[in-house]
UniProtKB/TrEMBL annotation:
Family the entry assigns: In the C-terminal section; belongs to the NAD synthetase family. Belongs to the NAD synthetase family.
GO biological process, one term: NAD+ biosynthetic process
UniProt-listed Enzyme Commission number(s): 6.3.5.1
Gene3D superfamilies xrefs: Carbon-nitrogen hydrolase, HUPs
InterPro entries: C-N_Hydrolase, C-N_Hydrolase_sf, Gln-dep_NAD_synthase, NAD/GMP_synthase, NAD_synthase, Rossmann-like_a/b/a_fold
Enzyme class, spelled out: ligase
One Pfam family from the record: NAD_synthase
Name of the molecule in the record: Glutamine-dependent NAD(+) synthetase
UniProt function note: Catalyzes the ATP-dependent amidation of deamido-NAD to form NAD. Uses L-glutamine as a nitrogen source.
GO cellular component annotations of the record: cytoplasm
């Protein structure tokens, strides 16, 4: 047996907070060593925080990381543990995103990331250069390039994030060169349902390349990106360990690297493929001998046996039901996003919400309160202030719902009417028009803008974080007001479709029993900016709207193709009406891009986000001729 204990850590970093990031990592590094960890793994860009985006173009931002890496090495010098940490370096005009191997008080080597993503929320090729197969350079006297690291327990292959996602990544040549333990350090943002994809991919890579994989992921939120942690340890395709998500810390497990070599010997296909690779001139990876850098202590490690003491029977199934898993993941992610933005900016003292008595502001309040329960468990409501700002169109039922949920959560609640201001602003607008009455839509917009203005005034005066409460469905078709409900400092649910908002509220009603949620759900969804206003009557049924959004914005279908897809999905809707919904959606969506590009910073929870900088990059000015049938 060749037993090795692998520790996988997730650190909640802040971009540019080099000293604080290193301090947090050192706490976990020392705890891992005390736990007998042989190899301690930290995330991508641990020292700088991720994503730093164009900040890496500042030479000082890059250079300042190295002293912290050396400090990390010095302060772990007495530990009999090998560490892999993420760091950025500048070499010959290029910025390189590297995995640094640290042991015995020294930085033993640097391995740069080879695959740079430029899809979804990523734009790394804009700032970073690529590592290359066979690369052999030196940075400050330290080997930098395509290297494996030989220790007294085995051969380690570090790699960075996207390298594992490519079928043509460096893992193939490195395992063919003898690597037994592949260490992938990542900063992979949370996306709905993506944890299953990660788990499957890591199992597939470990089986394909007949190796042990330690996958480490970042945790925490920076700007709108949320990182859920959740590292994995997998040996030759067999799941060994998964670390907790949405929390800083580490977990560790023991593997027998002799088992990895034995399974290679049994895997005929792997052996034949490796032989073919060698005979056709496959380029191997150089090995750095680091056996004298550190003497690991593995005498106390015991063979990994199942907790339920059976090698043949399945382990107890601890997975959550699908509905619970989906809802809790979204709520955990968004509350983490709110909390980290609130704390890391260090600009705010309290959270503020314009609570309308409707679904969107209710869910935003519940997410903020979820964070507050973690930050101030003794009195979470003290961290939040809610304002109900009625006009003549506001109903008694929405006021009652807003008051009820605020009372149940212990949140400060104020009623501040905008009716008098609404009349005044409407009259001023009419005078500016030369006495012509304002349009009904302008009357609605005046109300929304008054509420936003008052929230900003409150925010400016007390250091409040003004949370924007709009959802993605209504944002996508412009059912929102620039300068009004589109505004805020942080958009909490702006990447959640309306159907998901309602799904989450149904779930929260079941698990919490809050009367305030029940009262909100009892009334049809509508902005109450006019008499008897119902959102689905003014737009279309939300399930159809969300389906249109997905097919058009995600699947990139034309209107005729959308109708073909929707017809069997909604057989109860006559074809002409469904076609009208499709045409209306596409028209509203393309006309509303100018609106949502002005929206505040939003939290990302999926691949399909309305964010021009990170996800859906669309021109504001565009024609529609390309969508017409020829």
């Amino acid at each position: 047996m060749r037993l090795v204990k692998v520790g996988i850590a997730s650190v909640n970093t802040t971009v540019g907070a080099f000293v604080r990031n290193t301090d947090r990592a050192l706490v976990l590094a020392k705890r891992m060593s005390e736990d007998g960890v042989t190899v301690g793994v930290f995330q991508e860009q641990l020292l700088a925080g991720y994503p730093a985006e164009d900040m890496v173009q500042w030479q000082g931002f890059i250079d300042r990381q190295w002293p912290e890496l050396e400090r990390f090495a010095r302060e772990t010098a007495a530990l009999s543990t090998v560490f892999v940490v993420g760091v950025g370096v500048a070499l010959q005009g290029q910025r390189l995103n590297c995995a640094a191997v640290v042991a015995g008080g020294r930085v033993l080597g640097l391995v740069p990331k080879e695959k740079l993503p430029t899809y979804s929320v990523f734009y790394e090729a804009r700032t970073f250069g690529r590592g290359q197969p066979g690369m052999k350079e030196r940075y400050r006297g330290v080997p930098l390039g395509d290297y494996l690291f030989q220790f007294d327990f085995g051969l380690v292959a570090p790699e960075v994030c996207e390298d594992i996602w490519s079928a043509d990544g460096p893992m193939r040549r490195r395992t063919y060169s003898g690597a037994e333990l592949v260490v992938n350090i990542s900063a992979s943002p949370f996306r709905l349902g993506f944890v299953e994809t990660r788990r499957e991919l890591i199992a597939t890579r470990a089986a394909d390349h007949q190796c042990t994989i330690a996958y480490c992921n970042a945790v925490g939120s920076n700007d709108g990106l949320i990182f859920d942690g959740g590292g994995f340890l997998n040996q030759n395709g067999r799941h060994v360990m998964e670390t907790p998500r949405f929390q800083e810390g580490f977990a560790a497990a023991v593997v027998d690297l002799d088992r990895t070599l034995r399974l290679r010997g049994e895997a005929t296909t792997w052996r034949v493929d490796r032989e073919a690779w060698l005979t056709t001139g496959g380029q191997g990876t150089a090995v750095l001998d680091c056996t004298d850098a550190v003497r690991t202590r593995r005498e106390s490690l015991t063979y990994p046996v199942p907790a339920h003491r059976s090698f043949f029977l399945p382990t107890p199934d601890k997975r959550r039901p699908a509905r619970e898993a989906l809802c809790e993941d979204i709520l955990d992610a968004l509350s983490l996003g709110v909390g980290d933005y609130f704390e890391k900016t260090r600009a705010f003292k309290v959270l503020g919400i314009a609570l309308s008595g409707g679904r969107d502001s209710l869910l935003t309040l519940l997410i903020a309160h979820r964070y507050a329960k973690r930050a101030r468990p003794e009195n979470p409501g003290s961290l939040i202030q809610a304002f109900y700002m009625p006009s003549r169109f506001s109903s008694d039922s929405t006021r009652d719902a807003a008051e009820t949920i605020a009372r149940e959560l212990g949140v400060a609640f104020q009623v501040v009417s905008i009716d008098e201001a609404f009349e005044r602003e409407r009259d001023v607008a009419a005078r500016m028009l030369g006495g012509v009455p304002v349009t009904p839509i302008t009357e609605q917009n005046i109300q929304a803008r008054l509420r936003a203005q008052r929230m900003w005034n409150w925010s400016n005066s007390c250091g409040g974080l003004f949370l924007q409460t709009g959802n993605m469905s209504e944002k996508s078709v412009g059912y929102t007001t620039i300068g009004g409900d589109l505004m805020g400092a942080l958009a909490v649910i702006s990447n959640l479709p309306k159907t998901v908002v309602m799904y989450l509220l149904d779930y929260l009603q079941e698990v919490t029993g809050y009367e305030g949620i029940r009262k909100v759900l009892a009334k049809p969804a509508g902005p109450e900016l006019a008499h008897n206003q119902v959102g689905e009557e003014e737009l279309m049924p939300f399930p159809i709207l969300d389906a249109c959004f997905y097919l058009f914005a995600s699947e990139k279908l034309t209107p005729s193709e959308m109708l073909q897809a929707l017809t069997p999905m909604f057989p109860e809707v006559e074809a002409a009406r469904l076609g009208g919904y499709v045409d209306k959606f596409v028209r509203l969506f393309t006309q509303s891009i100018y609106k949502w590009v002005q929206s505040p910073l939003s939290l990302h929870v999926g691949n399909l986000d309305l964010d021009r900088e990170r996800a859906l990059q669309l021109p504001v000015v565009t024609g529609s001729e390309w969508m017409r049938e020829t």
